[in-house]
Write a structure and sequence with these properties.
With 222 residues, this protein is mostly helical. The protein folds into 2 domains: 105 residues, Orthogonal Bundle (Endonuclease Iii, domain 2); 102 residues, Endonuclease III, domain 1 (Orthogonal Bundle), CATH 1.10.340. The protein binds iron/sulfur cluster (SF4). Its cofactor is [4Fe-4S] cluster. One of its GO terms (biological process) is base-excision repair, AP site formation. Keywords: 4Fe-4S, DNA damage, DNA repair, DNA-binding, Endonuclease, Glycosidase, Hydrolase, Iron, Iron-sulfur, Lyase, Metal-binding, Nuclease. It is an enzyme of class 4 (lyase).
């Protein structure tokens, strides 16, 4: 996809969701970080359900460290991978207290040094908490980048780099949210709802114009 088409594609997504923002519920940078760590392979809805009571008890790293791994586990057992996530949240809370004065750091190196924090989580925190022009590539954005021709790549890093080079800098920060919402609700994994998509004109997906029923049948046969 050309850069001109990429800009038009992203502009169309922006028009569909002008006030797009994270669907995770948090009240400070620490809660954002914990929510993103918990959201790996889990829905935002399930994370919000677990964190509402958790953050009442532990809104900061001190309280979370005091709660400890077992205490955290008690709140997050409904979320996939809860054992490892409880351990990581306890460890990262301690690390924030010991190395960062209880604050969430803003730089990639420090963020990725925290237990349970990889490149994607660091990108989300840098983008949402600190206004950095990062692009966190989750399963939805990886699919859209490849399916539409916006930023094809075999790895999430290739797609991330492609999106950063394709999307105008001024649009990069909110583009993360526009793309995620588009992937969740329109350009879905199994059956993209192309008839509801206002970026169809610029999308390079070869099957985009098939009626949805036919598209669904074709995909289930493949
Ligand atoms: S036209 Fe279809 S495949 Fe292309 S971005 Fe829109 S929903 Fe996705």
């Amino acid at each position: 996809m050309s850069k001109v088409a990429a800009k038009a594609f992203i502009t169309a997504l922006a028009e569909a969701n002008p006030n797009a923002e994270s669907e995770l519920i948090f009240h400070n940078n620490f809660e954002l970080l914990v929510s993103v760590v918990l959201s790996a392979q889990a829905t935002d809805k399930s994370v919000n359900k677990a964190t509402e009571p958790l953050f009442k008890v532990a809104p900061g790293p001190k309280e979370m460290a005091e709660l400890g791994e077992d205490g955290i586990a008690h709140f997050i057992k409904t979320i996939g991978l809860w054992r490892a996530k409880a351990r990581n949240v306890a460890l990262l809370s301690n690390q924030l207290l010991q190395k960062h004065n209880g604050e969430v750091p803003s730089d990639r190196t420090s963020l990725e040094a925290l237990p349970g924090v990889g490149r994607k989580t660091a990108n989300v925190v840098m983008n949402v908490a600190f206004g950095a022009d990062t692009m966190a590539v989750d399963t939805h954005i990886f699919r859209i980048g490849n399916r539409t021709g916006l930023a094809p790549g075999k790895t999430t890093l290739q797609v991330e780099e492609g999106l950063i080079s394709q999307i105008p800098k001024a649009m990069l920060r909110p583009a993360h949210h526009w793309l995620i919402l588009h992937g969740r609700y329109v350009c879905k994994a199994r059956s993209p709802e192309c008839s509801k998509c206002n970026a169809t004109q610029w999308c390079l997906y070869p099957e985009k114009n098939l009626p949805e029923k036919e598209l669904h049948t074709k995909r289930s046969l493949s």
